[in-house]
Amino acid sequence: MIKRMIILLLVLQAGAMLALAAGAHVWWHCAWPASLALGFAVVLLVRAGISANNFLMSRRAGSVTPAAHALDPARALGLFLHEFLSSMLTSSWYMLHPIGLRLQPQARGLPVLLIHGYACNSGYWLPMSKSLTRARISHYGIDLEPPGAAIDDFVPQVHAAVERLCAETGSAQVVVVGHSMGGLVARAYLRRHGHDRVARVLTLGTPHYGTALAHFGPGCNAVQMRRGSEWLNLLDASEADLQRTLFISIYSVHDNIVAPQDSSALPGARNLVFGAIGHVALGRHPEIMRAALQEIEAAARR
């Protein structure tokens, strides 16, 4: 469903670009190459404006940035540009290519289940999938459907995926990696099915205690991700200390979707804190992928 929505949005953007180009050609008598360039630039500026607005809203609701992660103008610009590029690649290319099940010949370590976040599909994990493939680690990216369902409604899909991944690889356990809402889905799975099948859970930019920006998202799952939601409070109260020790929460103090950013800090888990990385970029940033791969490989040595 998300892939179809992405295709529709790309068609609409292309239509808007062509309409702007036609208007420039007719009204301003611009040559067609210049008109098309103008239309493309306007669409890019609109997309950049959306990204900039996310940063603005997340800053207003944000937590205090540690001094060690303070940004100078050059790093702030790099943060914005990398997040904008990541958003463009994810929404215009990656999510057109869901990854599904990818078994590796002569696989190493534990298999990995990849759970995407809100309004995404498994194509979000395309860069991570390439990294896991190079490391000869079997993995499975699932597509959570329908997109606006309650988070607990995704648990049967995760359970089926865990069982399939174990059956296909012959492994007794998997490592779960969840981005954003995907980390909450992983926690919901553990609440219902326990941790027998799970060696480690890595969450990337997961709003463990909610995010102010969830107020602007449609769907039952967006409501559940609001700060102080009843669902989040019940999830938090249901977890035993042992379960939290399975978790490694990786997040950025400059996350532009999770605000306050320290909402991703999960008590009882190991929290790995980064700076100058945006929310969407967490799935493709070299530092994050190296850290995640190290933790995935370490889980097999426990």
UniProtKB/TrEMBL annotation:
Q: Which domain of life is it from?
A: Bacteria
TM spans, by residue?
Answer: 31-50
Keywords (A to Z) from UniProt:
Hydrolase, Membrane, Signal, Transmembrane, Transmembrane helix
The signal peptide here is 1-21
Stored InterPro entries: AB_hydrolase_fold (IPR029058), PGAP1-ab_dom-like (IPR012908)
Q: Where is the GPI inositol-deacylase PGAP1-like alpha/beta domain?
A: 167-267
GO function term, MF aspect, one = hydrolase activity
Any Pfam family matching the protein: PGAP1
Q: What is this protein called?
A: Alpha/beta fold hydrolase
